[in-house]
Amino acid sequence: MQKAYINSLYKLLQKDKNVISCLSDSGTDYDEMIAREFPNQVINFGISENNKVAAAAGLASCGKIPFVYTTSAFLAYRSYEFIRDDICLQNYNVKLIGMGSGLSWSTLGPTHHTTEDIAILYTLPNLTILSPCSPKELEQCINYAYNHIGPVYVRMGMSNEKEIYDENYKFVFGKNNVIKEGKDVSIYVTGSIIEEVIEASKKLETNGFSIKIVNVATIKPFDKNSIINEKNKYIVTVEEQNILGGIGSIISSIITENNLNIKLFKIGLNDSFAKGYGTYKEMLKMNNLDGDSIYNIINSILSQ
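RESULT FIELD:
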């Protein structure tokens, strides 16, 4: 995902001199290469995320298009007040790129995990939230963010995500994308964990269940009509988030507000921080978010 972002940003820097890359000591060879080629379009603020976000608002007020790139947890949590007051309140054209959503920073523990960002940022007026699941989708989300006038938060994984789409895929803003149809249960999923959902769905189908998978790439504004027009009576949400305030909570509100006859089940962190340390795959397994755990939970639901 990181490579897909850098490739997209590089093209935008070439295309538009108003695009500014705002960094916090990311320390990659790509950053150094881009800084050498575009010395007037790259600013490294060091480990000073709050100052960086505030400065990005100032850049936007002068007609620049800053792309603020740093670890998701430091951006969403540490800089929340600055995102709220300096960017969203002023409705400035700033693009916030959170690197390492969910449990991506697996070995560094809860201080680096980003498992509440949807909940806290969803409440901010004027902010668009995008959550791509694959490199191709991320590239298209970055291009959408560039063309959209106003603040955008893009949350991206960092776990060598596989490409699930072919070359014909087109990201459609504000619309959930049905990966596959099914008539027994609809799984709504956002972000990198979609790979685990696809794995779980294949196992469920060997048991005779028909599984619909829906990728939620636009979190805000949420595609309410996809829920209102849902044909299946069971929805399961899967996310690397605390289930309090994630897409499960958003969908729950839509079901309640529209008096829908749908039973909702949420899979995520149950009002807790993630347990343990290890690789990304190990973290998913320890927290019952790997393909086998998702399969077992949904199989139990459908079997009853």
